[in-house]
Structure formats: C-alpha cells, structure tokens
Amino acid sequence: MEVQELKQQLKLQIIEFLNLSPLTPEEIKDDEPLFGDGLGLDSIDSLELIVLLKKEYGIIIQDPKEGRKILVDVNTIVDYINKNRTK
Length: 87
Hints:
By secondary structure, this protein is an all-alpha fold. The chain is 55% helix and 0% strand. The protein has 4 helices and no strands.
C-alpha cells in the first residue's frame, strides 16, 4: 500500500475508532500533533489508538513510553506501521 493511501486509511480509522465525526480526513494534517494543542486527543484516545494498531495492523505496543514516541502524528504512526505491521 502506498504511503498516501495508508495515511488516508489511518485518518479514516482514527475518525471512526475515536468517534470524531463530523471531522474529515482532510482536516487532519499529516504532521499535526494528535495530542495537546493539535487534534486535542487525550490518554483514553491513546489507548484506543493502541487497540486500533493491534486490531488493524497486528502491532502490539506494550510500553507506554514507546506509545508516546509512536502516537505523535499521522506521519510517525504511518512510518511505524510500515516498519512493524504483521497484517
């Protein structure tokens, strides 16, 4: 899968998994921080994203510190998926 396709798919999954509608994938910038001042996600959302990565891509994140390094923005997550996916 092309990187741009994966980014689009991931944005759709983030919106669906976190119930962020009416947000659209176009409104989520690739380099926008997902937490804090960016998209404004919180710690509960980070757990949901970890579940999403496991369910959709076979990626298991055990260490919360590792999760904080991965769940920065769409670009960082897509890079991690490309290197570590099992599905």
